[in-house]
Amino acid sequence: MIVLKKLPVQSSSTIDKFQGKEIYDGVFPLPFGPKLSETSFYGKINEKNEPIILGNEQYLSRINENVRCLDFVKNAFQDLQQYIKSAISLRRIRNDSFLFSGLVVKKGYEDVQRFYLDFLSRILATIKKKSSHPKEFINQAMNEIIESSRFFPVSLSSYILTNKNSGRISGLILEISEESYEDNRMKIQKYLNDPNFLFFREACQQFGFKIDKDIPWQLKADISSPAMEKYLNGVNVFDKYFKKAWYYDVEAFQAAIYGFYNEFLGQKRVFSKDDEEFSWWLENYVKIKINEYKKTWNSSQIKNFSIRTSQLQFLLDKEKIFDYISYQLLSTN
After folding, report:
1. Are 286 and 306 within 8 A, CB to CB?
2. How far apart are CA 244 and CA 261, in angstroms?
3. Dist CA 310 CA 282 (whole Å)
4. Quick one: which of 320, 333, 73 has its CA closest to 207?
5. Helix, strand, coil in percent for the chain, rounding step 5
6. How far apart are CA 321 and CA 311, in angstroms?
7. How far is CA 212 from CA 50, 117, 289, 293, in A?
8. Contact 227, 205 (CB under 8 A)
9. If you compute the radius of gyration of the chain from its CA atoms, what whole number of angstroms results?
10. Whole-angstrom Cα distance, residue 236 to residue 232?
11. Which pLDDT does position 272 carry in this prediction?
């Protein structure tokens, strides 16, 4: 049986001090989750720390009219909802608790590619004297992206790891509120000092969720917990649901450049792979990744690496080529 506990009620003078993040950290009742879910990269990387992306939206299920998440996450959350509902009917939830009206999901899966295309479009919008000729514009766009990669991440796989998007891009994370992430005072008053907060935290754990320490209304599906395993039915989450994000880097560049050309230059043109050979895209992709990995290579080193990569087109499939590029750049100086 879960024992209900209440955090000490804070005086208004003490509450004023909780605006600081350091003090908030000291108030949150630990422990709250495994190492992976304690990081800002949860839902963005696999067990090998490689950036990932949802492989197919067919794995998403609608949890309500406005929110989707991974199918097994939905099943676990609905069981948690029912558990909370039963606790309310048994009067285990106080009527002044945020739980009293039940759990309603406000935020779930976000499409990272939509954010990414908007991000790249803003880069391409800076091109001066944009050519209306397709091939010329593609070259202009790629040159602008390569130049930008010297200063900040521009490939999809690198963009995923930035703070421009959240772990909700994975479908593993749900939020039951739309509160401000920065309001530490509110977090304490409304959630941590709630008479049923510890009950809520332990109920979440029973159904395989961990509460985010910095966002106490955010639930992360803990795929390593025994409680979540029964919803997974022995499936390896990373193998079934996700792909390495760098497999889609070049496709994402193509979608952004072609889409920008059609939308902003008023040209409705259907592009094909004949517009530029894959070898051309690969050559420029290598330049971008070298910049992103901050390699201080000379022109000869860059050329040799590009040649080796280009030769792989005749030996490996595209996914293996992207693996080779990333692993080589990660392992060399």
Report:
1. yes
2. 28
3. 7
4. 73
5. 50, 10, 40
6. 10
7. 22, 28, 32, 30
8. yes
9. 24
10. 8
11. 62
Query: Which residues fall within 8 angstroms of residue 196, CB to CB, at 6 or more apart?
Result: 4, 92, 93, 94, 97, 99
Residue in the block written with tokens 């002044």: 96
Q: Tell me, what's the pLDDT at 214? A: 86
Q: Find the farthest-apart pair of alpha carbons in the chain and give their distance in angstroms, rounded.
A: 73
E strand or H helix that includes residue 209: strand 209-211
| DSSP 8-state assignment for residue 179 | -
**H helices of 224-277, where?**
226-232, 237-241, 249-264
8 Å CB contact between 141 and 124 = yes
Tokens 């509460």 found at: 211
- Contact present, 120 and 250 (Cβ < 8 Å): no
Contact 102, 88 (CB under 8 A): yes
Residues 6 or more apart in contact with residue 128 via CB below 8 angstroms: none
Q: At 200, which amino acid appears?
A: F
* Tokens coding 291: 């910049």
Average confidence (pLDDT) per 10 residues, the chain, 333 residues = 36 45 51 51 93 96 96 98 94 91 94 95 92 90 96 96 93 95 91 93 96 91 95 95 97 93 74 71 95 92 92 92 94 78
Three-state SS across 58-122? HHEEECCCCCEEEHHHHHHHHHHHHHHHHHHHCCCCCCCCCCCCCCCCCECCCCHHHHHHHHHHH
The encoded tokens of residue 310 equal: 């280009």
